[in-house]
Each structure stands twice: as structure tokens, then as C-alpha cells.
Design goal:
- With 649 residues, this protein is an alpha/beta fold.
- It has 22 helices and 24 strands.
- The N and C termini lie far apart (71 Å).
- Its cofactor is FAD.
């Protein structure tokens, strides 16, 4: 097989991996290798091995906003006439925009909505991340929300970052909320006022070059939609602040240093420079080929190899799109349903509308949730064995793909991923692997340990020192499943009876209905993923929860008959929902034995005591998958009684 052999063919050939030149390797041996690799990467410090830059002032420089257009950021006081608003949304990414849009559709006036973000504009992760090579790993026809409503045709199969950010601004303009953005501003504290039936909110605006401005406002309703990948983290490596060269996080790309721009990846200022990039995840695989084109030398620092398939990027033919994609009313929801239905151990749909590496990887049910999964603890071992059985051909094919592309056998071996498909978000790229054939690219494999330290001019891994001029930290973000929505927003939330959301959730886990209403927090709408569900296409999850929250708010408003009202959830309803989440949680057990990463909180889930694991099971996502969750909520609609919801006037 050659470098041009399609990944799909290599995966198919992996079915016969014992006959393909891997003597003595069988399914059991591969599973044992998986376990050995996972154990090798476990660290006692778990998730605390990282530095959360938003919580440690010593690293504040890594949070500086390189994109803000200061003249476009309105002063916070001017945005709150009478120091109040009806709906305050925390987060201006796709989640915040979709909640605003669905609220507008439910009858809330755009001028009564305020959308808060520490960024200088809309876009969320697509505002911050503008690194060279950036594109989405979900096909654009599914990922970009409301395509049917806007009539927009994405330019590529996988949209590039600048297009996605522009599309976010298009949505804000089309639904009239472009002037609702309150930027470079964070909520510091939310306190529920039972007497006035509203939230008291402390705001702080930090406009570049100015002293912070604070403002106390009131909001009848609050939406917490702060995303899952928003606060950068750094490796807790000694010497980061001692390094004298240039260093930045990938979500704050320094084009003044590298040359180029978000729309032009000509990194001309890297010529003659030695660059280290730390990380080999979804971000790094897109950046590495861009760096290699321009830098004198690139050192790619790897803890855990990426499990990598082809992306097969292409431009969108508009005639093809209209005829084959947007050909009938409701096409985008049907396309997403088809996408989700391929994450099942049962018979998938005969037609694969997306036909991508996601939908050709059935074992990803271990990540996406599975209605055909185990229904009890006793069924879990057989289920995991079944996942391995259907996954091994794919993973062996991907490992063969590495061999077929990377010329140096020793480097190829280090780039092979020894873990199942469901342990990490699968990655797709058309150039990453071949970049290691360049003479100016060196893989610095740390065997799961990470860098040992930085010196004034070098990175150090084991007994090797590599002098570098620039370090790019493509080390990701705060783990999305740690803490409550308060932690996601870096805000204190104090609900009824003076109860702190952070303290309550840390003690006993969330108490919500459908993941959108918290028992102690009236008039506060959440955006998951706790006690809700999750699609690999997270924008779909956000939109479904936004529509669900808008439905609840609209129905509560109707019942209040023009009076000021409070919408909350009963304890009986939250207890019942927690039990349902628990009883649907068994398919999620597959993640416990995985190599450390986001999904198992760097291995901490498996090490938690049994009583804590029980709390985590009732706190997590709906284990039967997103379509099952949607059907459960829609069945709740059909009863037309708002069961579990209280509306008080």
C-alpha cells in the first residue's frame, strides 16, 4: 500500500491485521497494549498537572486579547439603561447566540437581551482561535446552525475558522441581537433576590488600556452558556515564566510575531526561526503543517499520539449543495439525525448522508452514547468487549495509515495511537502525518510524560535539550466536565436560600431537569452538558437546549398571564431526572479505562471512590445518545403539562 491509499481501504485491510505482517498480535494483545499505554500516561496529579491561566494572575499575559477592536466595544454602563435587562446571557459564542435567537423567536425583544462575554466580539471559541490552518472537524452542512433559515451555503465541506466567525456575526445581525453584545465584560457574582424575583449581578468590564469598570445590574432571567472550551490551560512545566524567547497559547495566536493573518497563513516572519509546538491534539494537527512551511525547524512535542484519519477537504459546489444537501424542507435536522443514527451498535441507516470518518466509525458509540448499550453493571464487560471487536479493524487500519505515509519507521511507530476510537475525540487531517517527512520537522515524543522543563532558551525532554526561538502552547482548555456552570463562567452563583451552586454541585452533583433548570436557581437557564446530552456536533446540542429553554420560558409566560413570574423546577422532578440519567449511564463506563484525556478528566474518573462514581454517573450526560435524549424531551412536550416546572407570580 502507498501514501495515496485511502484510509477507508486501510481500515478495511485492518480486518485481517493478523495476516498483514503483524505476527503474533491478536485482539487480546492489542487490548493489553491499550491498557499498558493508558497506565503509562496516568499521573498522580491528574488534571492538576495543568495551569488554568484564568485563575492564576502570574500567567495573565497569556489571556491578552489580540483581536479586540477597541472602538467597537461599548462602555458597559451605556448598555444597561436603568441598570437592568430582561434576559442576560453569559457567553457570546454559538451557545449564547442560539439562546438569544430562540428567545427572540419566543417573543423576547432583542433590545431586552444582553449577551455578555470577556471577548471583544461574537464567536466564542471561533473568536479566540484564529491560528493558521484552523477549520472545523464536523462537516459545515451540519455544524453551522440555522443554515436552512439563513440560506447560507458554506464555502467548504469543513468550514475554516474565519468563515465560522463571520457566520456567527451574520446570525447576530439577522436576528437583531448584534447590538446586544456587552464585550470585554464578565459577571463576577449572581445572587438570587427572592423578593424582587430577579438576579442581582455584579459586572466587571476590562477594556484594553483602561481601569476596570464595575456595575451592578438586575436581570429577570439569566442564561449560562459559556461553552466547553473557553479558558486556556498551560502545562505545569517548571520554567514557563523563565523562558526568554517568545511564547503564546494557540488561542491567542501572535501574527505580529509569526507574520500572516487569520485569512492569510503566510508565516513569513518564521523564516530562520526554530519553533516548538507543545501538543498533538485537534489544534496542533492543523498548525504543524503551517509552521513547517515557514520555520527553519519545528519541534513537535507529543505526550499522546493523535488517532488520525483523512479529512478529505473540498470546496462546496453550490449546484451540488442545492440538489443533494438542501433539497427539501427540514433538510438540516434530517442530516443531523442521520449523522447521529450512525452512532449505534444496531443497524445504521442504509444511506450515509455525511459519509465521513465520524459516521464510518461505529465504535464511537462509546463516546457519543448508545441506546443499544448495557442496561446494568453486569452487562458492561460484554459491551466493552463488543466495542473493541468492532473498533480494532478501524484502529489497526489507522495505524497502518501512519506506516504508509511516514517514511521513517521509528517516527511512524511513535505516531501510532494505542487506544480505542472512543477514548479521545477522533481527528482528521490531510497533511499532518506527511509533514513528518520534512527534514525541518522533529517529533519530540515524551512517552506520555510531557516536557520536563523550560530553560531561558530551550525546551527539555528527558536528557535532550532543544534550543528554540518561539514556543506555541497548543495545550487546550479547562476540562469541560469539571465543576458547575459557575466554574465554566468563572462566576459565583448564589441561588435560593443563599445556596452556592459551586458548593452544592461539588457536594452532591447537579440537580436539574433535562440539564436546563437547576433546583436552587430560579429563572436561570443552563446549557449542559451535565444531565443533558452531547452530540459530537456540540452546536446541535446547544441549539436543542436553547429551543427547550425558550419553550419553557414561553409556556411559563403564557401561564403567568402578564404578571411578573418565576420559573423553577421541583425537587421531585430533579430527583426523578437524576435517577433517569443514572439508569441511562451504563454505556459511559467504556471511558473509565481510557488513556488520560478530557473525557475521563485525565484518568481521575476511574480513581474516584465508588460513592463518588455514583454521583458522577447521575451528573453526567444521557448515555443513550443525543437522539434518545431529544425524544425523551419531546415526549415531555407531548404531555403538555410542564411536569416538574413551577410558575409563580
Amino acid at each position: 500500500m502507498t501514501e495515496d491509499t485511502p484510509v477507508a481501504d486501510l481500515v478495511a485491510s485492518g480486518q485481517d491485521y493478523e495476516d498483514e505482517g503483524v505476527p503474533g498480535v491478536d485482539a487480546l494483545q492489542i487490548q493489553e497494549r491499550y491498557g499498558e499505554e493508558a497506565a503509562n500516561r496516568l499521573r498522580e496529579d491528574g488534571n492538576s498537572q495543568f495551569v488554568d491561566v484564568s485563575l492564576d494572575g502570574k500567567f495573565a499575559s497569556f489571556l491578552a486579547d489580540p483581536w479586540v477592536e477597541q472602538d467597537a466595544v461599548k462602555e458597559v454602563k451605556a448598555m444597561f439603561p436603568n441598570n437592568e435587562c430582561q434576559v442576560l446571557i453569559l457567553g457570546a459564542g454559538f451557545g449564547g447566540l442560539l439562546y438569544a435567537i430562540r428567545m427572540v423567536e419566543a417573543g423576547i425583544r432583542p433590545e431586552d437581551i444582553r449577551i455578555l462575554d470577556s471577548a471583544g466580539g461574537f464567536g466564542g471559541t471561533w473568536y479566540w482561535n484564529r491560528y493558521p490552518g484552523l477549520s472545523c472537524d464536523i462537516e459545515s452542512y451540519s455544524y453551522l446552525p440555522l443554515l436552512e433559515e439563513t440560506g447560507y451555503i458554506p464555502r467548504h465541506r469543513y468550514s475554516q475558522g474565519e468563515e465560522i466567525r463571520e457566520y456567527a456575526n451574520l446570525l447576530a445581525t439577522k436576528w437583531g441581537v448584534a447590538d446586544s453584545g456587552v464585550f470585554q465584560t464578565q459577571a463576577q457574582k449572581l445572587v438570587w433576590d427572592e423578593r424582587s424575583k430577579e438576579w442581582q449581578v455584579e459586572l466587571s468590564q476590562r477594556r484594553s488600556g483602561e481601569e476596570p469598570r464595575t456595575l451592578d445590574v438586575r436581570a429577570q432571567f439569566v442564561v449560562a452558556s459559556n461553552g466547553v472550551l473557553n479558558w486556556p490551560k498551560l502545562p505545569g512545566v517548571p520554567g514557563i515564566l523563565d523562558y526568554q524567547g517568545d511564547i503564546f497559547h494557540s488561542s491567542r495566536w501572535n501574527y505580529a510575531l509569526t507574520g500572516g493573518s487569520p485569512s492569510d497563513p503566510s508565516l513569513t516572519r518564521l523564516e530562520g526561526k526554530r519553533v516548538a509546538i507543545v501538543g498533538t491534539g485537534a489544534t496542533a494537527i492543523q498548525i504543524v503543517p503551517q509552521l513547517a512551511r515557514w520555520a527553519k525547524h519545528v519541534y513537535v512535542v507529543q505526550r499522546t499520539p493523535a488517532s488520525l484519519g483523512d479529512r478529505q477537504q473540498r470546496e462546496t459546489n453550490e449546484d451540488w449543495f442545492r440538489k443533494n444537501v438542501a433539497s427539501s424542507k427540514g433538510w438540516q435536522r434530517e442530516r443531523l439525525r442521520n449523522f447521529h443514527q450512525h452512532f449505534t451498535l444496531d443497524q445504521p441507516p442504509a444511506i450515509n448522508l455525511c459519509d465521513d470518518e465520524w459516521t464510518r466509525a461505529p465504535a464511537l458509540v462509546g463516546l457519543a452514547g448508545n441506546p443499544a448499550g448495557p442496561k446494568s453493571i453486569e452487562e458492561i464487560p460484554a459491551y466493552i468487549e463488543k466495542l473493541h471487536e468492532i473498533d480494532l479493524p478501524r484502529q489497526q487500519g489507522l495505524r497502518k495509515h501512519v506506516e504508509s505515509v511516514v517514511h521513517d519507521a521509528a517516527v511512524a511507530e511513535k505516531l501510532k495511537a494505542w487506544y480505542p476510537s472512543w477514548c479521545k475525540r477522533p481527528l482528521f487531517h490531510d497533511e499532518y502525518l506527511s509533514t513528518f517527512n520534512r527534514s525541518n520537522v522533529t517529533l519530540v515524543d515524551t512517552d506520555g510524560k510531557g516536557l520536563d522543563r523550560l530553560t531561558a532558551d530551550s525546551i527539555v525532554a528527558g536528557d535532550q535539550t532543544y534550543p528554540v526561538d518561539i514556543i506555541v502552547l497548543a495545550t487546550g482548555f479547562r476540562a469541560p466536565f469539571i465543576g458547575s456552570p459557575a466554574e465554566k463562567a468563572n462566576v459565583s452563583i448564589v441561588g435560593r436560600g443563599g445556596k452556592s451552586m459551586s458548593e452544592e454541585w461539588a457536594r452532591s452533583g447537579p440537580s436539574t431537569l433535562h440539564g436546563v433548570l437547576d433546583a436552587n436557581s430560579p429563572n436561570l437557564f443552563l446549557s449542559g452538558p451535565w444531565q443533558a446530552s452531547n452530540s459530537p456536533n456540540y452546536a446541535f446540542t446547544l441549539d436543542f437546549l436553547a429551543k427547550h429553554s425558550a419553550h419553557i420560558l414561553s409556556e411559563a409566560k403564557r401561564r403567568a398571564m402578564g404578571k411578573r413570574f418565576v420559573v423553577s423546577v421541583t425537587k421531585e422532578a430533579t430527583d426523578e431526572w437524576a435517577m433517569q440519567v443514572l439508569m441511562h449511564s451504563f454505556p459511559g463506563a467504556a471511558i473509565l479505562g481510557c488513556t488520560p484525556g478530557y473525557f475521563n478528566v485525565e484518568g481521575e474518573l476511574a480513581r474516584a471512590p465508588p460513592e463518588r462514581q455514583m454521583i458522577m454517573a447521575r451528573s453526567g450526560v444521557w448515555g443513550h445518545g443525543i437522539e434518545s435524549f431529544c425524544k425523551t424531551v419531546e415526549t415531555w412536550y407531548e404531555k403538555n403539562d410542564m411536569q416538574g416546572i413551577e410558575v409563580q407570580t
